[in-house]
Q: What sequence folds into this?
């Protein structure tokens, strides 16, 4: 690999403040930055990306990814809901669409590195947590080892408020652009409506508590494990503890019954050499900043059994379980 390649980086430039600041930080370190905008047909975001790239002096490629997004993310996302699961589209998208496209673009422009504006750290082929206030390492737990080996994450040592301040100081046009919190392909946040527009969805069914029907639901795709159900039962709040798609049932439980000490996962993606024996670490079963109990991970074929030292609340089928050793991400699998 020549010196020129070593100082080139392909950056996912979304048109938001995070990727814009990431680009400027990489430039300050002496990298030649090539921007890639993944176009899903959102005109305003595309224009923001183009104007930001012009401001930064970064060449920008606009790549239409609607077809791979449908195949790798939207389709599986919809199918998972119909199976009674709670999928995470960003974790689906990152290895199969976003980072794959970045790696292909890096090869195209002769860049050794790929980069994004995620709040996590990458060092010496390892993926690490970012600052606690806005760590996004959980979302990256299913990247491949090859992707992580090429990865630079300039915002890993920053908090969001610092990045906003940097953007203002640098005069970046999108410095005050609101954060994008919704699912990119469901901008109105109505995922149930999005599912309905795609075709058949589950109809109404029973809510069962202790073997008795206590309520009706309008479709189990509207619910996820851990979510509170409306009303009270004998003066107590009830929560979704299980979805049984074959019966169209939602199973309810009391708050204290949501906590589990054993979580099974399938399709483990390891960012280390796959262990042949139990390993100790910690686990995160959803994108939260506080639940990260110590655990023992027991490999089981292509999956694993995770035994937690303290219970985790409402692990949901279809979500990812990310395994850590301190700050380092060891990998992640899909919760069964």
A:
């Amino acid at each position: 690999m020549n010196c020129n390649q070593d100082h080139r980086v392909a950056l996912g430039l979304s048109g938001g403040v995070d990727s814009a600041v990431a680009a400027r930080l990489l430039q300050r370190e002496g990298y030649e930055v090539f921007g890639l905008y993944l176009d899903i047909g959102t005109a305003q975001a595309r224009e923001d990306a183009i104007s930001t790239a012009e401001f930064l002096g970064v060449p920008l490629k606009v790549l239409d990814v609607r077809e791979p997004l449908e195949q790798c993310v939207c389709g599986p996302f919809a199918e998972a809901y119909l199976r009674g699961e709670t999928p995470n589209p960003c974790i689906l998208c990152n290895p199969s669409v976003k980072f794959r496209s970045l790696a292909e673009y890096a090869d195209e422009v002769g860049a050794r590195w790929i980069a994004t504006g995620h709040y996590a750290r990458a060092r010496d082929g390892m993926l690490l947590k970012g600052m606690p206030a806005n760590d996004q390492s959980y979302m990256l737990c299913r990247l491949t080892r090859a992707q992580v080996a090429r990865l630079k994450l300039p915002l890993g040592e920053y908090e969001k408020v610092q990045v906003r301040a940097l953007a203002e100081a640098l005069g970046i046009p999108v410095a005050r652009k609101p954060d994008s919190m919704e699912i990119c392909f469901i901008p109105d946040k109505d995922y149930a409506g999005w599912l309905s527009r795609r075709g058949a969805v589950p109809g109404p069914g029973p809510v069962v508590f202790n073997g008795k029907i206590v309520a009706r639901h309008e479709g189990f795709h509207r619910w996820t494990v851990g979510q509170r159900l409306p009303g009270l039962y004998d003066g107590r709040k009830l929560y979704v503890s299980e979805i049984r798609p074959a019966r169209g049932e939602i199973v309810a439980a009391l708050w204290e019954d949501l906590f589990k000490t054993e979580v099974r996962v399938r399709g483990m993606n390891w960012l280390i050499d796959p262990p042949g024996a139990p390993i100790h670490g910690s686990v995160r079963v959803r994108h939260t900043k506080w639940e990260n109990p110590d655990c023992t991970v027991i490999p089981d074929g292509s999956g694993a059994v995770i035994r937690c030292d303290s219970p985790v609340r409402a692990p949901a089928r279809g979500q990812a379980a990310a395994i850590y050793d301190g700050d380092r991400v060891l990998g992640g699998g899909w919760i069964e």
Summary: Residues 89-109 form the longest helix (21 residues). Helices lie at 3-6, 17-28, 43-56, 66-82, 89-109, 145-149, 160-170, 191-198. The chain is about 25% helix and 30% strand. The chain has a mean pLDDT of 94.
